[in-house]
Design a protein that fits this description.
The protein contains 9 helices and 11 strands. The protein has about 270 residues and is α/β, with parallel strands linked by helices. The protein has a single domain, classed as Vaccinia Virus protein VP39 (Rossmann fold, 3-Layer(aba) Sandwich), CATH 3.40.50.150. It has a 7-stranded mixed β-sheet with strand order 5-4-3-6-7-11-10, with helices on both faces. A two-stranded parallel sheet has the order 1-2. The protein has a two-stranded antiparallel sheet with strand order 8-9. Helix 4 (about 95) links the parallel strand 3 (about 80-85) and strand 4 (about 105-110). Helix 1 crosses helix 2 (about 35-45). The N and C termini lie far apart (about 50 Å). The model has no long low-confidence stretch (mean pLDDT about 95).
Length: about 270
């Protein structure tokens, strides 16, 4: 039986429940593409009508796998690094990628941090910072001696471009030699979200997503002082017959860069 009422979450914070539900549902499938028992337990502990979110799909789990992969690769080279998860929501990434040495800092608004503290296991290497990711005082809590990887999973699309680029520039200036990884959506998806909204069910429409950014715009990031390299990370193939074919084709056909929803890694000089 659920023990914590999560119906107080709204707006962008409510999307934390959406992504948790998508990931947990995928993890619970016999043929699921992600192993995430922590997400299943967390979802089932929260009192919320997840049917509000409509049909489930693989996309959220596929995105999580990309972030997991780049995090593990960074930790292979920097085993005692600090990973900063901006607007982490109800992600359970720490338990999927923990190498036993790294430090993790979860940054999110107070209602989300309160739920995380109540419902997720504590660790001396897991810190919680209850504030907006845009209030950059969280940087003062980061031990950067072993390297820094900053993740922004499902965050930037809800901001505007000036805000996103200002935050990236601040990270590049503060954490030389570190990296930042984020996902974004193409222009047509952003336009639809602002004009009509993505109506996932009769009761739920996702918040507007004003920020759009694709791989053919990487020169804009490279113009920011302190950024030395920008790369796109490929999504896994996914489950089924059609999706792997579509994924492969989207990376092969010329012109598709502006239509993909990329996961981007930014390297600081």
């Amino acid at each position: 039986m659920p023990t914590i009422d999560a119906r107080h979450l709204d707006g962008i914070s409510e999307t934390a429940l959406l992504t948790l539900h998508q990931r947990a549902t995928e993890a619970a499938r016999p043929d699921g593409i992600i192993d995430d028992p922590m997400a299943i337990g967390l979802r089932d502990t929260l009192g919320y009508d997840y049917q509000n979110f409509g049909r489930t799909h693989q996309a959220t789990a596929l995105r999580a796998l990309v972030f997991d992969r780049v995090t593990r690769e960074y930790l292979d080279d920097h085993p005692r690094a600090t990973v900063v998860a901006l607007a982490e929501g109800l992600q359970t990434s720490f338990w999927r990628v923990d190498n036993g040495e790294m430090t993790w800092l979860s940054v999110d608004l107070e209602p989300i941090i309160h739920l995380r503290q109540r419902l997720l296991p504590a660790s001396q290497r897991l810190g919680q910072c209850a504030q907006s990711a845009l209030e950059t005082s969280w940087m003062d809590q980061v031990d950067d001696r072993g390297g820094v990887l900053i993740t922004a999973e499902g965050l930037f699309q809800y901001l505007d471009q000036d805000t996103v680029f200002t935050l990236i520039a601040a990270c590049a200036n503060r954490f030389r030699g570190g990296q930042l990884v984020f996902d974004s959506i193409p222009r047509f998806a952003s336009s639809h979200s602002q004009r009509r909204g993505f109506k996932l069910s009769k009761d739920y429409t996702s918040p507007p997503m004003p920020f759009w950014f694709t791989a053919d715009q990487y020169d804009e990031l490279l113009s920011i002082p302190g950024i030395r390299a920008v790369h796109e990370l490929r999504y896994p193939a996914g489950r089924g017959r059609l999706l792997p074919w579509i994924n492969r084709l989207s990376y092969q056909l010329p012109g598709f860069a502006r239509l993909r929803a990329p996961v981007t890694i930014v390297e600081f000089g």
